[in-house]
From TrEMBL:
Protein name in the entry: Protein FAR1-RELATED SEQUENCE
Transmembrane domains' residue ranges: none
PROSITE patterns: ZF_SWIM
Family (UniProt): Belongs to the FHY3/FAR1 family.
InterPro entries named in the record: FHY3/FAR1, Znf_PMZ, Znf_SWIM
Compartment list: Nucleus
GO molecular function per UniProt: zinc ion binding
Organism: Centaurea solstitialis (yellow star-thistle)
Domain SWIM-type: 138-174
Predominant subcellular localization, coarse grouping: nucleus
Cellular compartments per GO CC: nucleus
Role of this protein: Putative transcription activator involved in regulating light control of development.
Keywords: Metal-binding, Nucleus, Zinc, Zinc-finger
Biological process according to GO: regulation of DNA-templated transcription
Length: 353
C-alpha cells in the first residue's frame, strides 16, 4: 500500500507542477546531473580528503567547459535551418545550447497544423496537432492584444522555452518575431552581464512603449476584423473604403489639434509630467503671446515651426540614446570577450604545467 502511494505521488508530480518553473529539471534529473558531475573523479573508495581535492578539480573542469561554451556562443554563429526572422532573432539572443533547443521546436512547427477552435473577440483558442493526429492535439489560447499565448502542454511555464504548439500559432497569425515576454534573461548570452545603465535608460521609455504597443495591437486587431467584413461584397467594400477615408481625415485633424494644444500650452506631455513647476511661467508666456494680437495664420505658422523643432529634438534624443546604448553594449561585449580569453589562457597554462 505504501509503495503504491509513493508511485502515485511520483506520477502525479509532473502534472501538479507542470505550470511551475523548474528550468525543465525534475528531481531525478538533478540527481543524475549531480552524479554525472563527479563521474571520473570519485568512487566508492574515495576518502574524504581525496573527495575535497577531486571536488575542486571537477569544479575547475566544469568552469573550463562553461568558459569555452561562452566563448563559442560569443564568437561563432549557429547554422540557421529556416528563413524565419524569429530563428535569426533567437540565434542572436540565446546561448548556443538553448538556441539549439528553440530551433528544434521551431522546425517541428512545419509538421503541425493550427486550426481556430474558439474566438471570443479577445482570446482565440487554437487546436494544434500533427496532420492526421487530431486525437493528440494541444489547446493554445492566444491573446492578440497582449501578444501572449498559453499552451496546455505548459512547456514555457515549466522550462522557460516556447513550445512548438505556440510557435505554430505564431506562424499562422503572422507573428514574425518572438515577443519579449517569452525571452527569459537566464537563457540569453547576456545573462551574466551587469549593464544596469541600459536598463535605466530604457525605463524612461517603458511606459510609453507599453501603452503604444497596446494601442497598436488593439487597432490592428479591430482593423483585421474590419477588413474581413468589408471584403465580403462590393457594397461592403465601398462602405469600408469610404469609412477608412473619413477615419483617416479625422485622425489627421486630431493629430494636428493635439500638437497645437500641446504647443499652445508651452510644453509637451513629457514636460507636463516631469516638470510641474513651470506651469505659471508657461501660462504667463501664453498670455504674453495673446497680447501681440497675432493673426490665426501667423499663430498656425509659429505652431508648425515649433512642432518641427520639437520633433527634431525628439529624433536627436533618440539617436543619442541609441548611440549610448550601442556603446555600452559594445564595451560590455568587449569585456566579456577579454575575460573569456583570459580564462582560456589560464586553463591552457595549467594544462601545460
Amino acid at each position: 500500500m505504501a509503495s503504491s502511494n509513493v508511485l502515485l505521488t511520483h506520477s502525479m508530480g509532473p502534472c501538479v507542477f507542470a505550470d511551475t518553473f523548474f528550468a525543465e529539471m525534475s528531481i531525478t534529473q538533478r540527481s543524475d546531473s549531480m552524479n554525472s558531475y563527479f563521474d571520473g573523479y570519485v568512487n566508492a573508495s574515495t576518502t574524504l580528503n581525496q573527495f575535497v581535492k577531486l571536488y575542486e578539480k571537477a569544479l575547475e573542469s566544469r568552469n573550463e567547459k562553461e568558459v569555452k561554451a561562452d566563448y563559442d556562443t560569443m564568437n561563432t554563429l549557429p547554422l540557421l535551418r529556416t528563413p524565419s526572422p524569429m530563428e535569426k532573432q533567437a540565434s542572436e539572443l540565446y546561448t548556443r545550447k538553448i538556441f539549439m533547443r528553440f530551433q528544434e521546436e521551431l522546425v517541428e512547427t512545419l509538421t503541425l497544423m493550427a486550426s481556430k477552435a474558439e474566438d471570443d473577440g479577445e482570446v482565440t483558442t487554437y487546436q494544434v496537432a500533427k496532420f492526421g493526429e487530431d486525437n493528440k492535439s494541444y489547446r493554445v489560447n492566444f491573446n492578440v492584444l497582449e501578444m501572449r499565448a498559453t499552451c496546455s502542454c505548459c512547456m514555457f511555464e515549466f522550462s522557460g522555452l516556447v513550445c512548438r504548439h505556440v510557435l505554430a500559432v505564431f506562424r499562422v497569425t503572422n507573428v514574425l518575431t518572438l515577443p519579449s515576454c517569452y525571452i527569459l534573461k537566464r537563457w540569453t548570452i547576456n545573462a551574466k552581464s551587469s549593464v544596469i545603465l541600459e536598463e535605466r535608460v530604457n525605463d524612461a521609455f517603458s511606459s510609453y512603449l507599453e501603452s503604444h504597443t497596446v494601442r497598436y495591437n488593439t487597432l490592428r486587431h479591430e482593423a483585421l476584423k474590419f477588413v474581413e467584413e468589408g471584403a465580403e461584397s462590393v457594397d461592403t467594400y465601398n462602405v469600408a473604403m469610404h469609412a477608412l477615408e473619413e477615419a483617416a481625415r479625422r485622425v489627421a485633424i486630431a493629430a494636428k489639434n493635439e500638437g497645437r494644444l500641446l504647443l499652445t500650452n508651452g510644453r509637451t506631455r513629457e514636460d507636463a509630467r516631469s516638470n510641474g513647476t513651470l506651469t505659471k511661467r508657461n501660462i504667463s508666456n501664453h498670455h504674453q503671446s495673446l497680447d501681440h494680437n497675432l493673426s490665426e495664420d501667423e499663430m498656425d505658422r509659429k505652431i508648425q515651426e515649433l512642432s518641427k523643432e520639437v520633433e527634431c529634438g525628439k529624433r536627436k534624443c533618440e539617436v543619442y540614446r541609441s548611440n549610448l546604448v550601442s556603446v555600452l553594449r559594445d564595451i560590455e561585449d568587449h569585456k566579456q570577450q577579454l575575460s573569456l580569453k583570459v580564462e582560456i589562457i589560464r586553463y591552457s597554462m595549467k594544462d601545460c604545467l
